[in-house]
Amino acid sequence: MRVLVTGASGYVGQAVVRQLSQTGHDVVALVHRSVVNVPEGVELRRGDVLDGEGLLAAADGVHAAVHLVSLTRIREAFAHPTLYYRVNLGGTLHVLEALARQAEVTGVKPRLVMASTASVYGTPARQPIDETTPVAPENPYAASKVAAEEAIRWQVATGGLGAVVLRIFNIAGAVGELGDYDDTRIITRAVGVAAGHLPSVEINGDGSATRDFVHVNDVARAMVHALEDATPGRFDVYNVGAIPASVAEIVDTVRAVTGREIRVTHRPANPGETQRSVGDNTLIRERLGWSPQQSTLTEMVRGQWEAELLRRHR
């Protein structure tokens, strides 16, 4: 299958490109400005999902897309909500339009997989969170992803597209030698403290707050499973998560893996902060046969630590 991957130069994008290539797909990697190393046989095309006409050209000859481009920082989303809608919804609309145009040319009904977020659920009382949980976005980022999901769902209803939305929990780990450089994420930040270039890990309350984590390579495998199962006229939603871990457990694991002390700054717990947010991945396991292969806390921390050491010595 000839597959366009948007956001191919990003952290998740590089994992998805590698996984698609390894499983025999013909990959077109869409990058904006970045220079990125891709596996042999992968075609690089430059483009921007906000450039509708340019995206039509970039999608020439493809039968499917994995759409990963997204703004994701919640604090920034509150400051710039329209920007988040422009990129997260507007970019998705352009991808849908490009696939529809390709269908007109080739006569082949396309497939689409979009990376969404578990934050669309808000803070539900019922745990673990499954796909029947109503969406209740609490910030512009999550709301923009809900809007993108709905646009896809209505396009699928025309019968001309098969689509899968993956609501992903907290991604961690490394893609080969590439780690996650977003130090607002707890594992990345704790490893950054161990490496000595961040001062401390801030913990709200006693550190028992628990979230769901999944290795980036397991996310990439889920994307491939979803793409291969996508069926014209069908819209599916799956949670992608793997293991629960508390902030305190993460800090302890980083200490154990790195052999370094991790300075911790304790703050009062935020009023109303969810103590536990964990996903139920039963549906994707049963329907697609996916299961996490690398999503242990030790593996995710070790990969990030090794990537951090390599980055610092380049």
Structure summarized in a few sentences:
The chain has 314 residues and is an alpha/beta fold.
Fill in the keyword field for this structure.
single chain; 314 residues; alpha/beta; Rossmann fold; UDP-galactose 4-epimerase, domain 1; 2 domains; seven-stranded parallel β-sheet; four-stranded mixed β-sheet; 10 helices; 20% strand; isomerase; UDP-glucose 4-epimerase
Describe the 3D structure.
The model has no long low-confidence stretch (mean pLDDT 95). This protein has helices spanning 11-22, 52-58, 74-79, 81-106, 140-156, 186-195, 216-229, 247-258, 282-288, 297-312; strands spanning 2-6, 26-31, 43-46, 64-67, 111-117, 162-168, 170-172, 201-204, 210-215, 235-240, 243-246, 264-267, 276-277. Strands 3-2-1-4-5-6-10 form a seven-stranded parallel sheet, sandwiched between helices. The protein has ten helices and 13 strands. The chain folds into two domains: 2-171 and 213-240, 3-Layer(aba) Sandwich (Rossmann fold), CATH 3.40.50; 173-211 and 243-276 and 294-312, UDP-galactose 4-epimerase, domain 1 (Alpha-Beta Complex). The longest helix has 26 residues, at 81-106. The two termini are 36 Å apart. It is 40% helix and 20% strand. It is α/β, with parallel strands linked by helices and 314 residues long. It is globular.
